Amino acid sequence: xxxxxxxxxxxxxxxxxxxxxxxxxxxxxxxxxxxxxxxxxxxxxxxxxxxxxxxxxxxxxxxxxxxxxxxxxxxxxxxxxxxxxxxxxxxxxxxxxxxxxxxxxxxxxxxxxxxxxxxxxxxxxxxxxxxxxxxxxxxxxxxxxxxxxxxxxxxxxxxxxxxxxxxxxxxxxxxxxxxxxxxxxxxxxxxxxxxxxxxxxxxxxxxxxxxxxxxxxxxxxxxxxxxxxxxxxxxxxxxxxxxxxxxxxxxxxxxxxxxxxxxxxxxxxxxxxxxxxxxxxxxxxxxxxxxxxxxxxxxxxxxxxxxxxxxxxxxxxxxxxxxxxxxxxxxxxxxxxxxxxxxxxxxxxxxxxxxxxxxxxxxxxxxxxxxxxxxxxxxxxxxxxxxxxxxxxxxxxxxxxxxxxxxxxxxxxxxxx
Length: 417
Hints:
It is a single chain. The chain is α+β, with helices and mostly antiparallel strands. The chain folds into three domains: about 1-110, no CATH class; about 110-270, Vaccinia Virus protein VP39 (Rossmann fold); about 290-380, no CATH class. The protein contains 13 helices and 14 strands. The protein has helices spanning about 50-55, 75-90, 145-150, 150-160, 175-185, 205-215, 295-305, 325, 345, 350-360, 360-365, 370-375, 385-390; strands spanning about 15-20, 30, 35, 130-135, 190-195, 215-230, 230-240, 250, 255, 290-295, 315-320, 335, 395-400, 410. Helix 5 runs parallel beside helix 6 (about 205-215).
């Protein structure tokens, strides 16, 4: 880097920062946006004199990423130098002619959210002080964290952050919580992070709720296209601080406030559940396994016979729709619903039981959840109270829980025939 080792500086969202220039005319404001922010100035080494300080250019502003593999150290270094040279060019500085790929010692090889240096006693890692934190945490949903990180790691992680980040939150939320804690402790001025779309809803939104409790969100992009592994996904961008920033920008527009769900109007995140609606509103079913069958399989099972107790298979078959079916073209999916049948009772439905045994049992037998292992033939939560409530109705209203917009549709109970 440079001999004088300035404090860490991260490029923030739309602000000026003071940087030393290569000329002896003192600090100069570099315009990155409309409003200034105080950044601690570089102090020269003892005996260097004031002139030495004025002749020093911070090359580049020191970023402090806290998650890097050793084989990627030079790749990170290369990217940081490219960004800094581009910044110099766009802001009127003359880039140096000499090679600039010097080592950046502040890149650390460590786990950013769980310190397993002593596997028997995991602990929360300490992040270094920095004026700004800017990052793109890993995109890994809570449903696939165990497959990607392992059951033991996920259990240790969730235990470590219990009471702060709920178990159903996406992986990126732990970076939001760590950055929030750094700001609250005075170790960081502000942070800007990318997150999955889930960060503004459901369990993942708890990370933004906590940010709003101890500070505020001053910059947000609620929905932005992002290319990940060649596929187009949607992400959210969030900039937050301790509440010192008054100007707030959401989706490119100036707003008075930014709510934890990345909206700028009425804060519905604070809405309370009405007890009066308890018997008329329900969360949809959750199978917890591959109980799905195609429409052609359902027709074959309905027309099949030969069950030992003489009952038809139609008693176990249910048409099912999900958010994709509601918002697009329905695929005509069905499920095998063994409900609360015992293993012996379910086995009397010969063909449906054979499908469940072949498709569900292998994964259920190794599931960490005791109930799912011991009840491998049963769907996880089929909401019998919901089925009872809609049974006598001619139609009922449904809405997706994961769609970008709140859309309502009417469905009719299936014809019993």
